[in-house]
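Researcher: Re-running this chain for the archive, since the previous output was lost when a drive failed. Same request as before.
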Amino acid sequence: MKNLSVYDGVIVPGGFGSRGIEGKISAIQYARTHNIPYFGLCYGMQLLVIEYARNVLGLKDANTREINSSGGNMVIDIMEDQKEKIATKKLGGSMRLGAYDAVLSKGSIAEKAYSSTKIFERHRHRYEVNNAYVEMLEKKGLVFSGKSPNGMLMEIAELPASKHPFFLGTQFHPEFKARPLSPHPLFTAFIKACVKNNKK
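Model: Regenerated structure tokens:
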């Protein structure tokens, strides 16, 4: 992991399955503990939460049900409305798809990047942060700065700027709305953090 020290920032994009997961989690831990800007997209946010649960909360068996269907602390679990679809194998086009509203915490990195407390972002996933662990994670310093309007779905996880230059993950896909001449505000914030990190 020491090879990551030469990089100004780390991105873990969306994906699925178990291939390379432990290496990605180790990379996230290195970025977090060495103050390297980190940006997790969809699966990259879920792995951020798993890494934090394992190494800060102390739940060494923290995992996602996507790759470990039984036992352990499932800090990432199947969404309630997806359980029947998984059980009956009705998977075609049945993910949480499309754009949804989210509400951002004032003063968070996310809110400062958007200059707004209300956003509308595109999703493509079946798994979410397990709400049974949210309070425990928050008590240990992880901030769920973006949530669905009803507060039930965790859309953005981050560490405060006072704790890390940029450690943030989104359950949605900001890259879907990024354009060459109109970059997504979270990518802009990440790049700014990387540039600042490069000057150290």
